[in-house]
Design a protein that fits this description.
With about 100 residues, the protein is α+β, with helices and mostly antiparallel strands. The chain has helices spanning about 5, 30-35, 45-50; strands at about 10-15, 20-25, 60-65, 70-75. About 20% of the residues lie in helices and about 25% in strands. The mean pLDDT is about 95.
Length: about 100
């Protein structure tokens, strides 16, 4: 089974406002997007626990014409708070790069 990092040309995370993080997965091409973007391991039921949120808090946004899957979820603490450890949300994608896709 391929890992997510093998079927994407770029995986990144960033702020989606002070209370949300978004993860963007840019698939190599339309064939890869169609095959893997709706994989069970990328669904909110699987992604939520990886980021410590309930599945119903995970936004799932496939953008087929761009070969991109966007996933958004609430931050555990607001951006810039006293215990914030990733101010720009740029390190959050690391949790999913090794996911094996079905």
């Amino acid at each position: 089974m391929p890992r997510l990092e093998e079927v994407c040309s770029l995986i990144r995370s960033k702020n989606a406002g002070p209370f949300m993080i978004t993860v963007d997965m840019f698939f190599h091409d339309l064939e890869a997007f169609d095959r893997y973007a709706h994989s069970k391991v990328l669904q909110p039921e699987s992604i939520g626990p990886l980021f410590g949120v309930r599945p119903d808090q995970v936004g799932f946004y496939p953008v087929r014409n761009l070969h991109v899957l966007k996933i958004s979820y609430p931050r555990s603490d607001p951006q810039g708070g006293m215990i914030e450890r990733d101010l720009h949300g740029g390190q959050q994608f690391a949790r999913i790069v090794d996911l094996e896709l079905l």
